[in-house]
């Protein structure tokens, strides 16, 4: 029976997608690692290609953990993935994807526009290290691929399928264990917390390039957390793939707007 299938195939599909997403970072690492080591006066002890490959291990481990955690607790917490349900329950995949495609794209574009509008107006308040330049309008194929694959797929597997599902599951079992499903308030807390954690995860990278003023800190949280709330809502209401599609189109919107600004 379909309901008795073990979701091992969807687990492998998620791992494969995560691996593709991580490999999309390779060209960026090859380019950036020598610059970063030179700035820190650290000698390059191996070929940059080998170092770039080694640098991919950590993100792949994080994605693998997200895949594992999601497969253990996501559906138990009331969340879904069409890929998972196609594997586990035999539900059709393409018709369900078609049904959520337009609203997901729309919310992704709206998120991107809002973020870029806020970024545009706070630019005068930011230090020079965070100012937009025309170099950001030069998007290579590899840049585009990493934004779509790593941002749209890997980060959603880690943050929604993994982190958000786990937060909701833990809060449900601690505070509402007598209920058969977590309530909306628990889910909203999970949505907001997972978005905030992603924003705070950029503290080190931001602090490395500029002084962490209140404006810079607020910008960091907003740029990296606002859209996460939208993606979290989509994950809850429409499924993981809806969050992925929205995330991808937020990045497409960023690219289109930045290219237009520096024409």
TrEMBL record:
Keywords: Hydrolase, Membrane, Metalloprotease, Protease, Transmembrane, Transmembrane helix. GO terms for biological process: CAAX-box protein maturation; proteolysis. It comes from the Bacteria. Residues 143-251 form the CAAX prenyl protease 2/Lysostaphin resistance protein A-like domain. The chain crosses the membrane at residues 12-30, 50-79, 100-122, 157-175, 187-205, 217-236, 243-262. One of its GO terms (molecular function) is metallopeptidase activity. Pfam families: Rce1-like. This is CPBP family intramembrane metalloprotease. It comes from Alkalicoccobacillus porphyridii.
